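This part of the workshop introduces the protein records we will be handling. An example says more than a description, so a record of this kind follows.
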Amino acid sequence: MRTLPHSHTGEIAALLGVLVLTVLEITALATAPARDRPLVSGALVGAGTAAFVMVAAVWHSHRDVARQGRWSLSQTVDESWFTAHTLDGFPMEAVRPYLLGKNAPSLNSLYTAWVFTTHGRDAQWIERHLNLPADITCLLLEASRQRH
């Protein structure tokens, strides 16, 4: 059985809480005497509103954490990344076959990936942000490790 990623457990718990609350509200309304239903309905609307606010707060906080966790280029990239020796060790002969194929990445994308590999970015990050195939990214990472 595959487990869910840890980042979604709060959202799933909130969703399950809302579902349980909805079932309890329907049950309470169905079993309440006819004369008490307006009072029970008012209480249920209040509880539903509170649950909605809680779910919205969890969702909003999750988005804030994700936004803060993103790697910002403007905060960490400076001029030292781009020197006369930035492309030293770039494996041009090894990547040349990938440049000739169908749906080939641009040379600029490969240069950008190279700069990121030489500054510590991992393969998954580069693949996701530059939309590069895993084999090219691994090739660049290996060449980058040999460079250092």
Notes: The chain has two domains: 6-70, 74-147. The chain has a mean pLDDT of 80. The helical segments are 9-31, 37-69, 73-76, 92-100, 107-118, 123-130, 134-147. The CA atoms of residues 112 and 130 lie 8 Å apart.
